[in-house]
Design brief:
By secondary structure, the protein is α/β, with parallel strands linked by helices. 38% of the residues lie in helices and 24% in strands. It has helices at 9-13, 22-33, 46-55, 87-99, 119-128, 145-150, 165-178, 201-212, 229-234, 246-251, 263-273, and strands at 4-7, 37-40, 62-65, 70-73, 78-82, 103-108, 111-114, 138-141, 155-161, 182-188, 191-196, 219-223, 237-240, 254-255. A hairpin with a 2-residue loop joins strand 10 and strand 11 (191-196). It comes from Caldicellulosiruptor saccharolyticus (strain ATCC 43494 / DSM 8903 / Tp8T 6331).
């Protein structure tokens, strides 16, 4: 019997408009009613994950943010753990980005600090206009190394984005060869994410299981991209979206429908509810 459902957000639970379909909402609500913990596991900044937890009525659950750098108990509003990059690593990452003239932003606590307003920071800037004040993400435009130094090892994640995938891959190689004690992954083909070594969704989910006293065999995990690989491999039942990368599909126990066709709801129907969801 499964006791925990770990779900990625982008291109898994969220549709193309970055919203949750009614069918997915109903399926998650029914899974909760059956007694399962539903844990959102995302690369997004903590406030971004908390927003969707609120939408889904999961304010009594634990969430995983920043690809596993933060595990937050929403019921107590306290971190189960918080792991930041070493300041020296953060400074070297920024220097390499500057040398290659590539966009980056990083997360310091609940603040997004960005080199310039573009890509994800532009998205959140526009999204803030629709959100209540307590859900808005603070965005600071600042590319100085002094600001990074002042963050005192509390930067959870760097995000590097460019339309040129080869450029992103080149910068990834540069960072891997020149910066130590880091973990790199991708959340999309052109989005590189960097955390402290050992930080990933798998280790965060293991922490959640220990915290909630749940065996990994009782866990279902659903995802689509490189940053979900370890989590899918860890879970008792690892599920890949139809739109997932090939390497994730290869290790998954089951492949559900795509994020555009309520793949999460269909997986919940099959493995948790045993019946179709009416929405």
């Amino acid at each position: 019997m499964y006791k925990l459902l770990a779900i990625d957000l982008d291109m898994t639970l969220l549709d193309r408009e970055k919203k949750i379909s009614q069918k997915n909402k109903v399926a998650i609500k029914l899974a909760k009613q059956k007694g399962l913990h539903v844990v959102l596991c995302s690369g997004r900044i903590l406030k971004g994950v908390m927003h969707f937890a609120k939408v889904l009525g999961l304010s009594d659950e634990v969430v995983v943010a920043c690809n596993g750098a933060i595990v937050r108990d929403l019921k107590t509003n306290k971190d189960v753990y918080y792991i930041g990059l070493d300041n020296d690593s953060s400074i070297e990452i920024a220097k390499i980005c500057k040398a290659n003239n590539i966009y980056y932003h990083y997360y310091y606590k609940d603040i997004m600090i960005t080199q310039r307003l573009d890509y994800s920071s532009r998205f959140y800037y526009e999204k803030n206009k629709e959100l209540p004040d307590d859900e808005k993400i603070e965005i600071i435009v600042d590319d100085s190394l002094e600001t990074i130094k002042s963050c005192e090892n509390l930067i959870t994640k760097f995000v590097i984005i460019d339309k040129d995938i080869e450029k992103v891959d080149y910068v990834r190689k540069q960072i891997q060869e020149n910066v130590y004690n880091i973990e790199t992954t991708k959340s999309d083909v052109n989005i590189l994410e960097i955390m402290k070594k050992g930080v990933n969704k798998r280790n965060a989910l293991e922490c959640v299981c220990s915290y909630l006293k749940i065996d990994k065999k009782e866990v279902i995990a659903i995802g689509d991209n490189e940053n979900d690989l370890e989590m899918i491999g860890f879970a008792g039942l690892g599920i890949a979206m139809e739109n997932a990368i090939d390497s994730l599909k290869e290790i998954a126990d089951y492949i559900t429908d795509s994020y555009e066709n309520d793949g999460v709801a269909k997986a919940i129907e099959k493995f948790v509810l045993g019946e179709m969801v009416n929405a």
